[in-house]
Amino acid sequence: MLIGILFSISVLPAQPEGDLEAFGFIDIKTDSMNVPFFIDGFYVGTHPMAAPVPVLPGFHEVSYIPPDIQHEKIRENLSEGIKRVYVAENDTLDVFLFYDHYLAQIETMEKELKIQNYVGISLVGVLLYVVLSIF
Length: 135
What we know:
Helix content: 25-40%
Number of helices: 3
Distance between the termini: 95 Å
Strand order of the largest sheet: 3-2-5-6
Radius of gyration: 24 Å
CATH class of the domain at 18-100: Mainly Beta
């Protein structure tokens, strides 16, 4: 009997059902398996998702791009991997992200940006050397 009382106390509902009506839901899908998903920069799971993700009503950014990759040029070129959506209260929004080869593009673009930065810094260094050599 004591075990039954302890068990009934430990099994309390996490949230009353009425509280879930204050949320909206995002159901994320993609064209590849095991793709990590992020909502507003927070990891929420991988494809396929077991259930839609509850969110507060309002605007949200849904993507598969990790929050540590935030360079503006990369984000502009991957418009199919980042969606800015509005979720209404007590509504489920379906979001489809095209993944296929975009992650490889991200890595390539990061390398290109690093090379551009190195070349730019080198050119500035050479220019300073030439200017200082003349005077």
